[in-house]
Amino acid sequence: MSKGPGLFSDIGKKAKDLLTKDYISDQKLSISTTSYTGVALTSTAVKKGGLSTGDVATQYKYNNILFDVKVDTASNVSTTFTFADIIPSSKTIASLKFPEYNTSKIEVQYFHPHATLTTAAALNQSPAVDLSVTLGTPTFALGAEASYETSTGKLTKYNAGIAVTKPESCASIILGDKGDTIKASYVHHLDQLKRSAAVAEITRRFSTNENTFTVGGSYAVDPFTTVKMRLNNHGNLGTLLQHQLLSKSILTISSEFDTKALEKTPKFGVALALKP
After folding, report:
1. How many domains does the chain have?
2. How far apart are CA 199 and CA 216, in angstroms?
3. pLDDT per residue over 88-147, tens digit each?
4. Residue 59's domain is classified under what CATH number?
């Protein structure tokens, strides 16, 4: 466990990752290489609905500075600078995008054994300002986040959450969408290495009286193979197989079915990440 309560974005993250991470419906190929100087280069090609796209990403790390740059097929350039400990126990992240420079922002994260603080602002004339605070310990965290639009003088987002984390399990409750949605999740690890786990999540939207209940989990078949599954009360079933090939290369195959409308064409996705 970490020495503090973690960021607000960490509340409910374990359940979210188990239910969504690596589930894809496209064909994706990633090739990564790393030079002896520490420069990492990743090339990615994605095929979506018969259309192929690709991007190139480069990462360089020197001491406490991490530099990332990504260029896609539309010539959009995204650059991220991460500076650790400019201020003790802090992290500063500057995200610059071209030509859509209005979406660029700067973020500062501060970590304390009993609290974390994050503030972010867009780099434009009327910036939106995001602020989040989390109080507690690695086993218990209580937090809130808000977004303020300076051009209108209104709060565009405010959420609150609570999390309880133990070595074998974690539970969280998040009140989001300006109080219109409440989400509760629970994750239970089935082994000491935390490769196998079960998860349950329920979401209630008050404005529409809609409930979504999702169960799922992951199971380590062997040291190199993991299978995952998720199913919600609307009949959406997702399955995933992930296998580590030679070295650190990973093959992922996933599918999604509508069990209440089997005549619909299921979605399939394949991803291959080749690493040295």
Report:
1. 1
2. 5
3. 999 999 999 888 777 789 999 999 999 999 999 988 888 899 999 999 999 999 999 999
4. 2.40.160.10
